[in-house]
Write a structure and sequence with these properties.
The structure holds two protein chains of two kinds.
Chain A: E1 5-13, E2 16-17, E3 21-29, E4 32-35, E5 45-48, E6 52-59, H1 62-67, E7 73-82, E8 90-107, E9 110-120, E10 130-134
Antiparallel strand pairs in A: 1-2, 1-7, 3-6, 4-5, 6-9, 7-8, 8-9, 8-10
Chain B: E1 3-4, E2 15-29, E3 38-57, H1 60-71, E4 78-82, E5 88-99, E6 104-105, E7 109-119
Antiparallel strand pairs in B: 1-4, 2-3, 3-7, 4-5, 5-7, 6-7
Classes of the chains: A mainly beta, B mainly beta.
Chain lengths: 136, 121
């Protein structure tokens, strides 16, 4: 059961508690720059553009999301509960998260959902904004 | 792998070499009131060769060294360029080395470039 996690216990952004988290998706992407020589059949070099860390968090409490503003920046932290009692909670942190999208979805006979999207800003261009560790 | 005077200047990354046609210089003259034009054939001149590629290094300093090595052949002298297919182009003047991107940092430090050569005939 090592390293398996079951649910999101808490979520917070810029010191604001985000109640009733439903899902969290963290992405790390870089635009590939493939290249090859004129004598090559296959690509011989894949370089990368700057790395981009993104997060997508869905919560049930839409009233909190209504009060957020685009461009707001801060630390995004989620505590993930383990699937096994032998494991500790996991704290996943995206520092310098910039809120770039807010989507509120109200549906007939279903719970409303707010989807927040973030892109992380690194403090100095070299430090990884993502970190994960056992929660205290 | 391509070389310039047997030196491996470009082997850090992939590159392509486009060998242009030799150019015939023409002087065109027209005269008022006369249809057509007069063309003076000045003869064959030079051939332009264009190399585009990527330099890659483990550090910014190493990449700067690679670029400096290429700049060193902007010496006004004639060189032998051997392309990726093993074909040698003799009497080549290195006219321009142009970095096309800033020094980028991904997996390594890298930079795209263009080199223009002129082959004397």
């Amino acid at each position: 059961m090592a390293g398996r996690y079951l649910s999101i216990k808490t979520a917070a952004f810029a010191g604001i508690d985000l109640p009733l988290p439903v899902s969290l998706r963290l992405g790390r992407t870089a635009q590939p720059q493939p290249a090859s020589a004129d004598s090559d059949i296959y690509v011989t070099s894949v370089e990368l553009d700057s790395h981009r860390l993104t997060a997508e968090l869905s919560i049930r409490d839409t009233s909190i999301a209504e009060a957020l503003t685009l461009g707001q920046a801060g630390q995004l932290t989620c505590t993930i509960a383990p699937a096994s009692s032998s494991l500790a909670d996991r704290a996943v942190t995206l520092s310098g998260a910039v809120l770039v999208s807010i989507e509120l979805s109200y549906q007939q006979s279903a719970m409303a959902t707010a989807t927040l999207r973030f892109v992380a800003e690194a403090a100095d261009g070299a430090q990884d904004p993502f970190s994960a560790e056992e929660a205290e | 792998m391509s070389t310039l005077d047997q030196q491996d200047l470009f082997g850090s990354g992939p590159h392509t070499i486009l060998v242009g046609s030799v150019q015939r210089q023409l002087a065109r003259r027209g005269f008022a009131g006369l249809n057509g034009e007069m063309i003076l054939d000045m003869g064959l001149r030079t051939r332009e060769i264009t190399q585009r590629g990527r330099l890659q290094a483990q550090s910014a300093a190493s990449l700067a060294d690679l670029m400096a090595n290429i700049e060193a052949v902007l010496d006004g002298g004639l060189h032998d360029l051997t392309d990726n297919h093993g074909r040698t182009h003799a009497n080549v003047l290195v006219e321009q080395f142009q970095p096309e991107t800033p020094l980028r940092r991904g997996r390594n430090y890298w930079c795209e470039y263009t080199i223009r050569y002129r082959q004397m005939i």
